[in-house]
Amino acid sequence: MSALIEKDFDFQAGVYFQNNFVLNTYSITLAIDVNTDSIAEQNVAMERIKYLVYECFESCIFVDEAEAEIIKKYNDVGLKVCTLPDEPYDQIVALIVILKLNAVCESRLRIEEIVLTSKLSDDIRFKERLETAQENFKGNSWYHDVTPNIVSNKKDKKDKDKIVKIKNNEWKSIGLLWNEPAKKSTEIIFNIDPEK
Fold it and tell me: What are 5-27's pLDDT values in tens digits?
């Protein structure tokens, strides 16, 4: 059974743009296609979306990944940075957010469309479809990865080949795996009725 749902989110984030740091408030509406009959998987996927929005994007600073020096400075003082493949215009943010949210949902929920607006865009709404994002931003960047990472890690390919990645380890630590192993109960049940 398939269902179409919508969900709204608001979050605040910083933007580093043209040598300036500015605070911004974003509002997004997601048009979501439910692709699993499992209520548990639907709930985990929605919780992953909430985690990304409220724990990763909230209070981050959107920065073009080409701004290596600025990113290092923000990291050095402990600020949360979200790297983008271009300047942090609202349209770019919308396209990257829809890709990342789809990646973490792993097809249980499919975000077909995002409508994003912000205070800096004078409340103009950017309506973007998943297909547009997929056509414009291909590859293996953080926004295609199933983990809650929001930073590009550009490393030497030789070093990458030596690293073993455990994809869902981060989701396990926050309790958002698809199939949590059943916890063994220490409860002992006595049956007093010998007929049963």
Answer: 999 999 999 999 999 999 999 99
- With a pLDDT cut of 90, the percent of the chain lying above it is 78
CATH architecture of 3-173: 2-Layer Sandwich (3.30)
Alpha-carbon distance of 137 to 108, in angstroms, equals: 22
Helix (H) or strand (E) holding 195: none
- Those residues whose C-beta lies under 8 Å from the C-beta of residue 117, and which sit 6 or more positions away, are 26, 27, 28, 90, 123, 124, 125, 126
Domain coordinates of the chain in residue numbers?
Answer: 3-173
As a whole number of Å, the CA-based R_g of the chain is 20
Q: What is the pTM of this model?
A: 0.84
